[in-house]
Each structure stands twice: as structure tokens, then as C-alpha cells.
Amino acid sequence: MTTTATATQQFMSTEQLLKHWQGHRNLTRRVIEAFPEKELFEFSVGGMRPFAKLAVELISIGGTALKGIVDNNMEAYTEEGFNPKTKEEILKKWDEETGVINHYFNQISEERFQETFNLFGQYEFPVYENILYFVDNEIHHRGQGYVYLRALGIEPPFFWERF
């Protein structure tokens, strides 16, 4: 019996994963920009949170989680420290957090992406699955934002235009 070794190719590099995530972040930023100031903080549908609160959640997770992964810190995250009153504050913090995400993401070695990590002391998955969760969570909340914008009569950005 002959055994043939085949080379496996990686589906996606870590650089491509970060670019994919940042593309979603760029789109979510444009959704935030599309909201009128008052509605960003007050409008909701069906008892869901206003989009400003959803944006604060997203701001509070990404960089904090990556820092936790890099530092092997499993403490829970909190949304308590950031209470914006304007769209400008949210956008400024969003942009700052993009830098934090880039900084910590680039400190995670290829090998670490496969390691199991107990994110926030609650979710024990491989690092790459935790990162995919951040992207999934953002897409979910951005979808809520799309519903809000349409309910307000505002055309949301095209979902495929991420950059």
C-alpha cells in the first residue's frame, strides 16, 4: 500500500481574517453615521436596544477581548466605562478601538489561533472561533441597525460595500 502525502493549503491567513473583520467594522461605522443623532440614541423596534447601545457593546468587546487573549486574561468585559452622549463620541471611540484591535490582533501568533481560550471567563473556544464570534455578533447587531434605518425611511449602506 502506498501512502501519498498532500500539501494542505490554508483557507485564510490571519491578515485576511483581520481585513475581513475590519471590512465589517467599516460598514458598521457607516451604519452609525447614517443615523440621525436623536434616533441613534432613542429609536428602537420591538423592545430591542437603540443602535447607540449596540454600538457601545461592539466597541466594548473587540479590543478588550483581543487584549485579554494576548495577556491571557479571562476577566469579563463591561460596557460601564463608556457612556457616549453624541454620535461624534461613538465614532471617535469606534476609530480608537479599530487601532486597539489592530494592535492586539497582530500580537497573536499563528499557533495561538488554534488554542482554546476561555473568553471573558464564559466562552471556551479556539481563539479563531472567538474572533469569528466578534464578527458574527457585529453582523447580527448591524442587521438590527438596518431594520431601524429602514423603519426610519433611511436607506442603509449596501452590505457588500465594506471598504
What's the CATH superfamily, by name? Answer: dinb family like domain
Point out poorly predicted stretches. none
Approximate strand percentage: under 5%
What is the CATH topology?
A: Four Helix Bundle (Hemerythrin (Met), subunit A)
Mean pLDDT, all residues: 90
**How many alpha or pi helices?**
5
- What's the overall geometry? globular
Count the E strands.
Answer: 2
CATH architecture: Up-down Bundle
Descriptive keywords:
single chain, about 160 residues, mainly alpha, Four Helix Bundle (Hemerythrin (Met), subunit A), two-stranded antiparallel ribbon, 5 helices, about 5% strand, globular, metal ion binding, DinB
Describe what you observe in this structure.
- By secondary structure, the protein is mostly helical.
- It has a single domain (16-151), classed as dinb family like domain (Four Helix Bundle (Hemerythrin (Met), subunit A)), CATH 1.20.120.450.
- The protein is built from 5 helices and 2 strands.
- It has helices at residues 14-34, 37-42, 51-71, 87-105, 127-151, and strands at 116-119, 123-126.
- A two-stranded antiparallel ribbon has the order 1-2.
- β1 and β2 form a beta hairpin.
- α1 (14-34) packs antiparallel against α4 (87-105), α1 (14-34) runs parallel beside α5 (127-151) and α3 (51-71) packs antiparallel against α5 (127-151).
- The longest helix has 25 residues, at 127-151.
- The chain is globular, with a radius of gyration of 18 Å.
- The termini are far apart.
- The mean pLDDT is 90.
- Belongs to the DinB family.
- Keywords: Metal-binding.
- A divalent metal cation binds at residue 141.
- InterPro entries: DinB, DinB/YfiT-like.
- One of its GO terms (molecular function) is metal ion binding.
